[in-house]
Structures are given as C-alpha cells and as structure tokens.
Amino acid sequence: MLELKKGKDLLSTIGGIRTLQQAQEVFADKLNRENLTKLNTIKNEEALIKIANAIVMCNPDTVLVNSGSEADRNRIRKYAIAKKEEKRLTKDGHTIHFDLPEDQARLVNQTFYITNEGESLNSLAKGISRTDAMDYVKEEMPGIMEGMTLIVGFYSRGPVGAEGAIPAIEMSSSGYVLHSAEILYRNCFADFDKEVERVGFFFTNVHSEGENISENVPKARIFMDRSWFTTYCTYCTYAGNTLLLKKGNHRFAVDYCTYYKREQQLSEHMFITGMTGPNGRKTFFCGSAPSGCGKTTTAMVGSDFIGDDLAQLWIDKDGVLRAINPENGIFGILQDVNREGDPHLMDCLRGDGTEVIWTNVMVNDGSPYWVGNGENCPNTGFNFQGEWYEGKKDKDGNPVPMSSKNSRCTLLASAISNHNTQLAEDPKGVPVKVITYSGRDGDTMPPVRVARNSDEGVVIGASVVSKATATEVGVSGVRRQPWANAPFIPGSLAGYMNAQFQFFNSKKFSDETRPIIAGLNYFLTYGNRGGSGDGLLGEKKDVKVWLGWLDLYVHGDVQALETPIGYMPKYEDLKKLFAGIDKEYPREIYDMQFAIYVDKIIERIDMQSDAYRKEQHISVHFFDLLATKRAELIKLKEKFGSIVQIKEFE
C-alpha cells in the first residue's frame, strides 16, 4: 500500500529549508522586486517551502515567477530563443526545437520510481531505493542551474474546479519546457491556493537540462517520488521526459486514483472525443492506445475533439461517467500526418495564426518538413542530426530520415477547428458512453468489437499488445501494453486491475449509463488475413466508420453479431457507414477483417495468462475470464475449424 509523506523528502533534505521564514529569506536574496511581488500572492506554505528548496538546491542566478500574464509568457519565449533552445521559423509564432540525438524519446531505462521498503511496483516498471535516489540527486542537482534562470509555473491538470483536476508546480531552467507547459497546461497562478485547498495536495516538478551536451545524456535520470508527489529530472530536454506535468504527474494521478479514489476516479492514457450521430446526437468516447498507434488520429476524427492523450474520469451523482482532459494542448507525433488523414491538424500546421513549437523535424528556408507529410519536400536542410541531404547515412551506414520518427508538434488544442473548447473547459466534464482500447496488432483481432460485459471489457484493456514505437529509447519488438497505460502505472498491476473491475462494475452506474467497452485495431494486413503483401486492410479515414458504428450500437440503433470475442458489426451497417465517407466496402474485405483466427487468439490468451501469472496477487476472476473465453474458442474451432468466417454468426 502506498503511504504519502513516508521516508525523507529529497528536496527538503538537500535544500535544508524547513520554515516559511527561511523560505522568505531565500526569496529576498534571489528574486527581484517584481518576481517577489508575484510570489507573495501565493500563500500556501508547503508550496513556498518547496520552491525555496529547489532554489537553494539548484542555485540559479535568477528566478522568474510565471504568473501566466502575456508579459511573462513573452519572457519565457525570449529566454528559450536567447538560450538557443528554440529558433524562430518563417511563420509568425512558429519555432523549432532540437533535442540531442540521444534524447528524442522517453528514456525508459533511465526512468525510475523512488520506493520505500515494502512498497510494490508494477513489474514492468523500474524502481530505485530512496537512499540511492538521494545519493544521485545530492551528487548531480546542487548547482545544476548556475548561470541560468529558474522558471516557476503554477498549473492545473484539468479545468480549474473540475472533479478530476489536480494543481501542480513546474520548475525548470529550460525556456522550452516552460514554453511547452504554457501551451499544454492551464496556468492557474491566480487560483493555485484555492485549488490546493480544494484537492488537498499538489504535484511538484524540478528539472534542469544542465549543460545540455550529448556526453551527459547517459547520466540523465527521471525520478518520481510517489510518497511526496515530486519528480526530479536531469540532463535531457525531450518533453516526454522533462515536461513533468505530463507523464510524470500522470503516474502520480494513477496512484492517487488507484489507492485513494478507488471506484471514484480513474486516470487514463486516453483520448476524449465526441461523434455527431443521427439528428445531431453527441456521443463521447474515451480511448486508450500506446503512443504511435493512432490515438491522436482517432481523437481528431471526432466532430467534438476534446483531447488526444490523457483523461481523468469519474462517476457523477447521476451515475454518468464524466471525463476531462488534464491538458490544454497537444504534443502530437508528426510522422505520417498529412492532409488525407489529418486535415484539421494540417490546417493548423500549415495555416496562419497558430503558435506551434516544432520538434526534431527538418527545416529548409525557415519552413518545417517531416516524413509522410504528403507534400513535395526539399532534398536538403537542417534536421535533428545536423545538416541533412537526401541519401545521408549515419556512422553505421543507416539512412538518416528527413525527420525523427518521434518528431512532434506542440500547439493549443483550441486551435484545431473541430475542438469543442467550451466543453473542454467545462469543469463538469463530458458524458462518456464508450471506452476503447487498441494497440498495433497486424494479425489477430478484428477492427472493432464490443465486450459482452464490463468484466470482458477490463480483459480487453488488460490484453493490449503493441510493437515498440519510436516514442521509447532502448526497447524493441512486440510487447504487452496493459490498458496502454502500463508504462505509467507505478503500483502493482493487480491493484490497478482490481480498481478497473471495481470502477466499471460500480453500482453507481445504471444499465442506461454504464459505458460499453470496445477493442479497436487499425493494423490488420492483407498477408495475415488470407491475402498477400504487408499492406494494411484499412486506412486512416476508416476510423470514422468504426467510431460511427460504436455510436449507433451504444444507442441501440444497430444490432450486432455475438461471438466469443465480443459483439461484432453486421456487414450492411458498415457498408452504409463507408458510403458516408465516399468509400466502397466490398463484402470480401469485411470477411477478411472480421474472420476469427482461433489459434491466434488462443495464443494471445495463453501469452496474457502466462504473463499475468508472474504478477503477484492478480485476481482469480481474471484468469477465470481468460479460461472461459479459451474454452468457448476451442468449442468454436471444433465446430468450424481454426479460421471461422463471420457468416457463421449471421
């Protein structure tokens, strides 16, 4: 069981500030009159003492308190450019940031949870003892900001006042990191004290890139102190590591929901989007997928886009599932973003009037280009590895692509034309009817299926698999990705799974309000489905059909075919939906996509069963559910063979 404020707090131990009076003395020494005046509006003593300890430990030359004013935002932008962390591009409000070649994705093997004796961790996570973490921070962080400015920002992870929103402090010497925070999160300087009083705590984040040289990246560390809700990050700039409000604080939110808000809240790696159905009806979806597996594309297919990465969910007093986006912007993967598949995003990226931070793309004559953009691109420029030309190879003889596979764009979500900003900023959240889980599955599961009940839905989430993507440094191959959230689950998978079972089976839901849970899969190939070649059986625009069918199904507008792996759509219903996107949908494609490959699915069940048996305290109920499904599939195989055509269920 997690215990808050257990063990020595690294920040106060190293900084040595224990009282408000000591903190005020630090501020008087380090802050000029303007910044001291701003900080004096914050009254929460714990927050002030933490800020003072960060100042003492990191020893910056100056401190900028970011009030969220346009003047402070401009100071941050100018600081990022002055430090050469960003460079202006031709379009007004567009800048380019390059991470070091070794630091262009999450540093999975250098990311650790600080643990106390007796605490259990997710078996897929890496832990470090409090003593060892203390030794590292004592060695590396004192004086790490000498010659720099420490920027202090106050943010809300969600609309201020929302049930699932949590306040946080972000402190960094990087102008790029705080510039990103101002786009991706809601500055709550004016409401910080009130929000801390409402929630009862806040998250604290301390980062410095140090000298920002390649030689230092091997000693980079991302530490998450679960007991003190504090993160520490050194010697890297990639926002997935350093913008600690994002995945660092998401991990804390997962802990908070799993251990202290069980059956009340969930913190998920999910998009939130709405679809407009018959007669203007709005249906909201939350969906989880590992990075690089179509999550942003799915989110933006909706008519009412809310968010593309994270979601806080709770059940309201009327038994309705509600969701907010902790973020205010998107940190989107660029590779293969183009007009055909992502028209709303492309309008922002190629249009005027949107502030955009580009990361690790190729720049030619002040304009950015990336792999898969569907445009005519120059064959020379400057990119994430320096001067670039078509055909360039690295030291190992491998082609250097035009842009990093994990190149990114950072922009306000409200800039995207289908973003429903009014609902996104509503503290009540949006009502969610459908939960989806997906991965990168080339050969096993159909494009869409609905769990027959909530328990089977939890199993779908627990059984996500995916190929490793460019978002992670040092990993490869096909991997389990439970709930597409496992990299961000600090505690045991058993505890998290139990929280999922309890939440989705909550008696607070009625039959009318309980959400359905579905599996999505965009990555089936012809070769794995009785055809030839490795081409995909679908394309990006098909996503609108799969979500459209789920909208019809959840409202009872269409019937489904019951199979051992869930409810599947009928051909005629899909054919009509495909006609709505001006695309033919031959029966033979439907048959290929929705055939049940029994041996493949049983192999997948056995893989999950074997893997979860290595976890401690996994619910017997979970294994019973797997065993029941396995038995159903064996019976199906005995009747129809190893490949069962969907017509057998019609």
Q: Give a count of the beta strands, DSSP E runs of length 2 or more.
A: 33
Helical content (DSSP H or I, runs of 4+)? 25-40%
Gap from first CA to last CA: 49 Å
| β-strand amount | 15-25%
What's the overall geometry?
A: globular
SS summary, helix count: 20
Which structural class matches the secondary elements?
Answer: alpha+beta
Radius of gyration: 25 Å
Look at the structure and give the mean pLDDT.
Answer: 95
- Low-confidence blocks of residues: 469-476
Strand count, sense and barrel status of the largest sheet are: 9 strands, mixed
Account of the 3D structure:
The protein has 650 residues and is of the alpha+beta class. The strands form eight sheets. Strands 1, 4, 5, 6, 7, 8, 9, 10 and 11 form a nine-stranded mixed sheet that branches. Strands 12, 13, 14, 15, 16, 17, 25, 26 and 29 form a nine-stranded mixed sheet that branches. The protein has a five-stranded mixed sheet with strand order 2-3-19-24-18, covered by helices on one side. Strand 6 and strand 7 form a beta hairpin.
Short description:
This protein has 650 residues and is α+β, with helices and mostly antiparallel strands.
Give me some keywords for this one:
nine-stranded mixed beta sheet; 650 residues; alpha+beta; 33 strands
Secondary structure elements and pairings:
Layout: H1 10-15, H2 20-30, H3 33-39, H4 45-58, E1 62-66, H5 70-82, E2 87-88, E3 94-97, E4 111-115, E5 127-129, H6 130-140, E6 149-157, E7 166-172, H7 175-184, E8 186-187, H8 192-199, E9 203-208, E10 221-225, E11 230-234, H9 239-242, H10 247-260, E12 265-268, E13 270-276, E14 282-288, H11 295-301, E15 304-307, E16 311-315, E17 321-324, E18 329-333, H12 343-350, E19 356-359, E20 362-364, E21 367-369, E22 380-383, E23 386-389, E24 408-412, H13 421-424, E25 430-438, E26 448-450, H14 454-462, E27 465-467, E28 478-480, H15 493-504, E29 516-520, H16 543-554, E30 560-563, E31 566-569, H17 571-579, H18 587-594, E32 596-597, H19 598-613, H20 620-640, E33 643-644
Parallel strand pairs: 1-6, 3-19, 4-5, 4-10, 7-9, 9-11, 14-25, 25-29
Antiparallel strand pairs: 2-3, 6-7, 6-8, 10-11, 12-16, 13-14, 13-15, 16-17, 17-25, 18-24, 19-24, 20-21, 22-23, 26-29, 27-28, 30-31, 32-33
